[in-house]
Specification:
The structure is a single chain. The chain is of the alpha/beta class and 267 residues long. The chain has 2 domains: 30 residues, no CATH class; 176 residues, Rossmann fold (3-Layer(aba) Sandwich). The protein is built from 11 helices and 8 strands. A hairpin with a 4-residue loop joins strand 3 and strand 4. The longest helix is centred in the N-terminal third of the chain and has 15 residues.
Length: 267
């Protein structure tokens, strides 16, 4: 990751075309947790707090695959078609705002897809219509805010069945997920799966790109609370902070069967 001072020196010594190329080189600007991990994984799970840069990471990963020609059939899955368009396509970290002009995709809203100059296409899919995912033949997909999906089990199954063809150069099919976590069975299963690559970030990880006054307010208001731990620190929480008993306390005093006290008639 290039720091601002180094970046300024580099840009001053580059031609206009080289400076523009560097500007769109995500590998140079991203934090380590925003880059896809190495390895032969099928699923990359990004757990991040609000504003941690998760959508940008997923979109840059997708953009890299499609712009390079390694993959030609992709999909973006969001909780609704409106969310896909407003956040993942047209938002501040959306594909139409992060792609360079020489490789800018054309957005076809009526067809629910983006089309790259090299012929690669990316379909927009909605959790509200999981059955419509049937029939797609995809090699890569990006899921934005998995924990917000209402038809999670069915949608995830349909997407996995669709992401099944190799890339143009034989790269294996892959799915990237970006989400602020909730204690959902699917998320827990993904975290427990050693074949799933996991990266983590917090809201503070992206502090220099967030409004400092807003960040101070969020930390003062929610820091240390259950909501803050989930939404800012990206922790998966099972316990209610107001509950009389919690999992840690129960585990601490749990009796192992072979160490249980023995009952006798004389008691």
């Amino acid at each position: 990751m290039i720091d601002p001072a180094t970046a300024e020196q580099l840009l001053a010594n580059l031609s206009a075309s080289d400076a523009e190329a560097l500007l769109y080189d995500w590998q140079s600007w991203a934090r380590p947790d925003q880059l896809a991990p190495p390895g032969n994984w099928r699923v990359w799970l990004q757990l991040g707090g609000r504003g941690a840069g998760k959508t940008r990471s997923g979109n840059e990963w997708l953009r890299g695959h499609l712009e390079s020609g390694r993959h030609a059939h992709a999909a973006i899955l969001s909780q609704s078609m409106e969310a896909a368009r407003k956040i993942v396509v047209e938002g501040p970290s959306g594909l139409l705002n992060i792609c360079p002009q020489w490789a800018m995709p054309t957005f076809e809203p009526s067809n629910r897809l983006l089309r790259w100059p090299n012929g690669a296409v990316c379909h927009l899919l909605s959790d509200a219509e999981p059955d419509l995912i049937r029939g797609y033949n995809l090699s890569v997909a990006f899921v934005d805010e998995l924990a917000a999906l209402q038809n999670l089990a069915q949608t995830w199954a349909m997407l996995n069945l669709a992401v099944r063809v190799p890339g143009c150069r034989g790269d294996r099919p892959q799915i990237a997920i970006a989400t602020t976590p909730r204690p959902l069975p699917l998320l827990k299963a993904l975290l427990a799966d050693p074949a799933v690559a996991v990266t983590r970030s917090t809201t503070l990880s992206n502090a220099k790109y967030l409004d400092s006054a807003a960040l101070d307010f969020l930390i003062k208001q929610y820091g240390g609370t259950t909501l803050g731990r989930q939404e800012l620190n990206a922790e998966i929480l099972d316990d209610n902070e107001l509950a009389l008993w919690n999992r840690a306390l129960l585990d601490r005093y749990r009796i192992v069967p072979n160490r249980a006290p023995r009952w006798s008639a004389g008691w």
